[in-house]
């Protein structure tokens, strides 16, 4: 049966076969995505989206700066914070316009950073320049991603159990924690010279203090979601901005420490031209011809291993976002996601920027910041319940009023019968009772 474009298609993820024909899954993803495409833009007009944009911006900025510092040291300044920020900003705008699940946030991840650093070491073994080797590896990686998109290889991830997905999330978290601890330990165990022992020791202690303070502030504010102060909406918004608030406070404490004690602390450096200039001042376009035959062969193999790392990193993250517990309404598009990643990876490789994938922690935080928690989600149900209670109260009042009228009529009838008996008795005694019309009405 041919796949037609134009109308929404309801799909059950479990019913899709693992092996599919050429481009069939990609066309189905297009058919699911097109009816919802404009709503991805118009939904941003919601107030919840505005607060989420601010939260995600600072989170993505912090992630880019952190991994930029790691890559700058691991690649000997071949790529650093400038390239990481440029890649994050560019893909943050390009990828959501092309993919099937724009809730995912593109960013540098621990496995990708570790693989890029390892690729540089392999390039030194064969005598290949790092940036041309990296660019060729990225182009081969894009070819593998295109093949994976056309043949729906992402369906293989469906066979992965929930335990594996959670284990992968734990691995990403451990990498983040390891990189942070590695920085502080390296400063504390470094053996300084005799002339600057006190200065370096003070800098190491100050950095450790600021790092622990930032961590404690972030975790404390994040935990206020279940506190008793204020209402649920305010607590959720404050908890969403926990990393941003912690970073701002940590930066303020660092500057105050420097001003008060004159301690030299490490800060991220940028080129004199700002974000528009690369870390080393090189051109933004990598020279693909500056590589030998051994380097091209290594890049083909390196691109294949990079595909394995990115394939699992990307698809597991997207499936965590598309989990049934999130109750998403617009469906999924795994093959579109891989095609968008293919295009973005080719661009990043040619410009010498680090590869990006759907980052697990920012993507889940993005999804969590846009969802409606218990009290927010139940507002409509509470309004409906109140309306039903009001209608029930009105009907009960009407029923009681009718019952009261019935009792009054019964009492009036009994009073009329008693008056008739009295009048008959008076007639028997030769007396007549004159009752006016007004008295009769009062009696009734």
Automatic annotation (TrEMBL):
Recorded superkingdom: Eukaryota
UniProt keyword Membrane present: yes
An annotated GO BP: monoatomic anion transport
Alphabetical keyword list: Membrane, Transmembrane, Transmembrane helix
Similarity field: Belongs to the anion exchanger (TC 2.A.31.3) family.
Keyword Protein transport: no
Domain (Bicarbonate transporter-like transmembrane): residue spans on this chain: 23-193, 207-391
Record organism: Tetraselmis sp. GSL018
Ranges that cross the membrane: 53-71, 92-118, 138-160, 167-189, 201-221, 241-260, 291-312, 332-357
Protein name according to UniProt: Anion exchanger family
Compartments where located: Membrane
GO cellular component, one term: plasma membrane
Membrane association type: Multi-pass membrane protein
Molecular function via GO: solute:inorganic anion antiporter activity
InterPro entries assigned to the protein according to its UniProt record, in alphabetical order: HCO3_transpt-like_TM_dom, HCO3_transpt_euk
